[in-house]
Amino acid sequence: MANYERLSAMDASFLGIEDQAAHMHVGAVMLFDAAPLRLPDGGIDIDRIRRAVHARLHLVPRFRQRVAYVPWEGLPVWIDDDRFRLAYHVRHTALPRPGDDRVLKRLVGRIMSQPLDRTRPLWEMWVVEGLEGDRVALISKTHHCMVDGVSGADLMAVLLDAVPDGEVGTPEPWTARRRPSGTRLVLDAALRRVAQPRTVLRAAVDAVRTPRAALHTLTEAAGGLAELFGPAFDPVSATPFNVEIGPHRRFDWTAMRVADLKAVKNVLGGTLNDVVLATVSGALRRFFRQRKVDPEGLKIRAMVPVSVRTRDERGTLGNRVTQINAPIPVHLADPAARLDAVRVTLAGLKESRQALGGEVLTAISEWTVPNLLVQAVRLAARARPYNLVVTNVPGPQIPLYLQGALMRTAYPVVPLFEGFALVVGLFSYNGGLYWGINGDWEQLPDLHDFVLALDESFAELQRAAGIAPADAGRPETRERA
Fold it and tell me: Are 281 and 390 in contact (CB under 8 A)?
């Protein structure tokens, strides 16, 4: 029985591209009703929360594993952590008065500014009390090599309950597997390398048997790679957020209703994702003008991650994503015209082979140079094929509870990459669409202005659709990070 697991090329790439400035952890800020979690003295029952997490850990075994490396080759593998201590990972803190959203956002920025300890399982969960409005926050922080956005959403369903009377549960017995020896890891890696030519040979034999099908597959793959790397030969414009980043983060958020976005698309056309990108486009246009940058001549693209996780793979850890690079029409002043331009462009990209190209590159990385994907990401970033990342992850559309405490909101935290000081993450939950905006602390002191621009950009789309904007100036959007 194996006592370790090898990281995929995609998972390992998030370790490889991490450096002192770009921390590759993803996260979320979840706000709950505090009353069901309170002790008689008024504090939050952290021991109860830890017991609940402990009882679910057998469902996510990666959360008790840490990274080790194959000697000489340097490839990462997962091994059980024989020093695992739950209290190290599930942490407890409190906000100073007044405990408003602004103070919480600052705390999130500080937590996300610190890299995870690679000698331990790569996750933390912070329970934060002292929030105004009788709320408690749960801040999750997990390395991207463990989860992508879709599998991360599945983990929420593991840790949270669909009913308010969920039990703490009983932990299953667990003993760390013996750590593999360096000799074992080197031998297994060598055997895997020896087996790779046979895999290629089998593919060649299949190609001889079915030459037309093989030629079609090869043509599609080559075309996909060409379309994936095409934007790298057509760099986007330099912007105030395509700059060198530091290690410190500034986090902010806003919230909308999914029904409101659907109402816009039902009148103006397109999909919900089209409305999202049109909203981002209008916000960027407003933000650029505020920074005294003329948007009329700018070439702006967003990298949009695309999940290739099959239904059978839901609930499994690791990354199953590729990407498309979508033009963002910041040069258009009319909101309806921006939405129409996004709709036409995305329809074409869905028919393109960009996403296939990402899958092909990942597959090549599995059986050739181990760090090929890492180098491809770094070279692409320097070529500036896009300006920012916009990722939209669908979540559960039912209320969820943490030991009886209703989860009100969930804002995603997406990492910054080298040369990209702004990223936009979205997560839909129980009828709400929650925007988490992560930015570099030094480069984007006006991050909250971009958040306000998102609200105004969507209000423009609503007015273009003949819909009166609702809840303008929500309290949570007025709390500057």
Answer: no
Read off the amino acid at residue 34.
A
Is residue 395 predicted with pLDDT exceeding 60? yes
pLDDT number for residue 190: 81
Nearest Cα neighbor of 85 from 121, 110, 115 is: 121
| 475: pLDDT strictly greater than 50 | no
> What are 422's strand-pairing partners?
439
Tell me which CATH homologous superfamily contains domain 234-397+405-478.
Nonribosomal peptide synthetase, condensation domain (3.30.559.30)
Q: What is the pLDDT of residues 313-341, one digit of tens each?
A: 444 554 445 678 899 999 999 999 999 99
- Which residues on neighbouring strands pair with residue 27, listed in sequence order? 141, 413
Prediction pTM value: 0.85
Token pair in block for residue 349: 């990209």
Structure token pair of residue 230: 């095409």
What are the tokens at 80? Answer: 């059980």
HSE-up of 314 (CA within 13 Å, CB side)? 11
Give residue limits of the domains in the chain. Answer: 234-397+405-478
Catalytic residue among 25, 144, 248, 331: 144
| Element at 30 (helix H, strand E) | strand 25-33
144 tagged catalytic? yes
* H/E stretch holding 137: strand 135-143
pLDDT at 293: 96
Give the number of other CB atoms < 10 A from CB of residue 368: 11
